[in-house]
Each structure stands twice: as structure tokens, then as C-alpha cells.
Amino acid sequence: MERKDQVRWEDRREESRARLELARHLLRHRQTLGEFELTICTDGTYLLDGGAMFGVVPKPMWEARIQADAQNRILLGLNTVVVRTGHHTVVIETGIGNKQPAKRKAIHQNQELLPYSLEAAGVWTDEVDIVINTHLHFDHCGWNTKLLPDGSVVPTFPNARYFAHAGEVEHGHLQLERDAVSYLSANYDPLIASGQMTLLTTEGIRRNPEIVPGISVELFPGHTAQMLGVHIESRAPGGAAEHACYISDLIPTTRHLDPTWVMGYDLDPLRCIEERKRFYRRAIPEDWLVLFTHDHETPMARLTTNEKGRPVVRPE
Questions:
Q1: Domain limits of the chain?
Q2: How far apart are CA 214 and CA 193, in angstroms?
Q3: Predicted confidence (pLDDT) per residue in 223-272, tens digit
Q4: Is residue 20 predicted with pLDDT exceeding 80?
Q5: Exposure of 309 by Cβ count < 10 A (0-12 exposed, 13-18 middle, 19+ buried)?
Q6: Which residue, among 146, 122, 201, 139, has the nearest Cα to 169 in the 3D structure?
Q7: Within 10 A of 310 (CB to CB), how many other CB atoms are there?
Q8: Does the domain at residues 26-240 carry the CATH identifier 3.40.640.10?
Q9: What pTM was computed for the model?
Q10: CA–CA separation, 162 vs 92, rounded Å?
């Protein structure tokens, strides 16, 4: 082999390795659940204050689980779940998006990767027909819409019906001092105005009717007053029904499994503790696959209890 050809071949091999490594980063996980296919895509990572993420838990305790940087920030994921049911392509959560002001992007160091992650997973934005937002904080619905170079905002998923809780919109519009910064109206108001977003109400009930067959939502208040968990259930031919739940910010990462390790961002931390206990009473004995919204390393896991009776990730 001539030297020139060898160099060209080695360059191509290096490019192939780089593309493979990028694909691995962009595509966090893929597996079947009954007849459904679950794919974990990502909008990348971002940085949040560790103290805020663990509330009143002392830093020496939480830093034993995750290291903070010099500014006390920890690295978090932005996990989007794509569910292909055979009849629908459903997207759960849409990350931070590309509409953050420059100052906030500099703080969070987010990368705006979801469109590339979806492409790496073979998911095209025009095939998505359902988008579900568990709540409307900026880091959960940012790619509902996208900012174009001319300054206009358009739906990222042009053929999708979007679903969110009506109470989330009402709360976001109040722009309260406590959490106004968490709500960016461009993520949802254009979709409401066009009729593309359906606003759910759950007063007096725990479980909504199915969004599509096999996918439903349930109220898990605490982080916000109307935060939703998303249930996914499917049965393979001849097999038992399998159940997964995207529990959103009720349990943002596997480091937050302890019932009392709630966040400073939670509007009602005592309610969060009780809702976590309620969740575990079903998720553990029924062997649910739990999907974590902000855990970049472990986006999904099944749970068990340790010798002290505390919930932990079950070894596979």
C-alpha cells in the first residue's frame, strides 16, 4: 500500500471512529418494551448548582454521589424519550432548545443537541405525531419550538399534537418571583395560539385517559403543582405486559432516589416526599422501568430496596 493511500485510509478510519463516538453520545439508550421501541435521545448536558439540586441535603453527603465543579455546579442530562408504538411516534420532553438568552446559556453551558440526537436515532421531526411535556420549565419543553435565523419561532415537530397541563400554562403566565425564570412563553404560547397544543386538566382524578393506546399521564404534584408522570405500557405477543414510567423531576436522577433527597427547586418539597413514596409503592413491586429526565449516565433503570429498605438501582 502506498503511503498516500495508507494515510487516506487511516484518516477515514479516524473519521469513522469519531462519528461512532458522536453517535454513542447522542443516542443514550435503545430497547424494546413489549411491542414498543424506546429510544433515549439527548439535548446534551447542562450545569446546575449542586446545592439547589439537593436542597437541604448537606454537600458532603451529596458530593459523595456526584462531584461539583469549582462553581458548585453538577453535570446533568437532558433526556428525551422517543416511543415508537407501531402506530405513533411519541416524544416525551424536548430539552432546553435554542431560545435561551446568551447569559443563561453561558451559565448552563448547554449544547442544543436534540435535533442531531433525533437524526442519529433515525427519528425525523415530521414523523413525530405526539409530544408530551410533563411540565413547562425551560429545560423540559425548549425544543417544542425552534428559533429561526430571521427571529421567528416555529414548531419543531410540525405534524405533532402537543400535550401539557393547563395549570402549568396558567402558572407560567403568572410570572411569580419564585420561578418566573423557569417559564419561557415562546416554548408553548405559539402552540396554544395555533391550536397545536392540547391542555389537559386532572382535577379530582389521578390518571388521565390515554394520550394514545399504551401511553397515559398521571399527576405527581410537588415539583410543580401539576407535574405529570408519563406511563408507557405494552405487551409483546404471548408475553406479560411491561411498564415504564417517565417520572420527570419527581426523581430527576438516580442520585435522588432517597425519598427525602428533594430539590431546592421543588415548590412543595413535603409533597414531593409523599409522592415519591406513593410512586415506589407501585414501581418497585411491579418492576417498572423508570426513565430519569436528568441522569446522563443512567437514563433508565429498574429499582429495588437495599438492606435499609431504601430505594436503589437494581443491578442488571
A1: 26-240
A2: 28
A3: 999 999 999 999 988 888 999 999 999 999 999 999 999 999 999 999 99
A4: no
A5: exposed
A6: 201
A7: 12
A8: no
A9: 0.91
A10: 10
